[in-house]
Amino acid sequence: MGLVRFGVSLDKELLEKFDRLIERKNYTNRSEAFRDLIRKELVKKEWEEDADVVGTITIVYDHHQRELVNKLMDIQHDHGKNIISTQHIHIDHHNCMEIIAIRGSAREAQRLADTLKAVRGVKHATLGMSSTGRCIV
Ligand code: NI
C-alpha cells in the first residue's frame, strides 16, 4: 500500500476546532482522524448506493408481550437470508435486548431494521451501518 502525502489548506479556526475534536476522541494525530473521516464518508456512500453491507440491528422490548415476541420472531424468519446471528440479552425482569448481525444489500438491511422498529411494543431500535471492509482501505 503506497502512502501519499498531500497538503490541506484550512481556515485557522476550523483547524482549531478539528484539533479539539480529535483530542476529545483520543486520536494521536490529525492523519488518523482524517483517514477515519474519509472512511466514514465511504461507508455512508456504500449505504446510499445500495452496496453489499453488514451491520447490526439492536432492539429493546418487553418479553411479557407474547404477541410482540412472536411477531419479532416471524420477521426474523422471513429475513433469514439477511441474518447472520442474533444475540439475546435479558436486561432485567421485563426487558430484553436483541443484537441482530445482518448482511445483504443496504436496502434489504434498512428494510429489515424499519420493519422491526415499526413493531408495536418495540421500545428502542437502532441500525448500526457498517461495511464489509472491501470498499475501504
Ligand atoms: Ni430476554
Keywords:
single chain; 137 residues; alpha+beta; Alpha-Beta Plaits; 4 helices; elongated; binds nickel (II) ion
Order of helices and strands: HHEHEEHE
- The CATH homologous superfamily of the largest domain is termed ACT-like. Chain A, domain 2
Contiguous low-pLDDT stretches (5 residues minimum) are none
Give the strand line-up of the largest sheet: 2-3-1-4
Give the CA-based shape. elongated
% residues in beta strands: 25-35%
* Number of helical stretches of at least 4 residues: 4
Mean pLDDT: 95
**Total number of distinct structural domains:** 2
CATH architecture of the largest domain: 2-Layer Sandwich
Largest sheet: 4 strands, antiparallel
Bin the helical content: 40-55%
CATH topology of the largest domain: Alpha-Beta Plaits
Description of the molecule:
The chain has 137 residues and is an alpha+beta fold. It folds into 2 domains: 12-48; 52-131, ACT-like. Chain A, domain 2 (Alpha-Beta Plaits, 2-Layer Sandwich). The protein contains 4 helices and 4 strands, in the order ααβαββαβ. It has helices at residues 12-24, 30-48, 66-78, 106-117; strands at 52-62, 83-90, 95-105, 122-129. 10% of the residues are buried. It binds nickel (II) ion (NI). Residues 63, 88, 90, 96 line the site of nickel (II) ion (NI).
Short description:
This protein is an alpha+beta fold. The protein contains 4 helices and 4 strands.
Task: Please specify the SSE layout and strand pairing.
Blueprint: H1 12-24, H2 30-48, E1 52-62, H3 66-78, E2 83-90, E3 95-105, H4 106-117, E4 122-129
Antiparallel strand pairs: 1-3, 1-4, 2-3
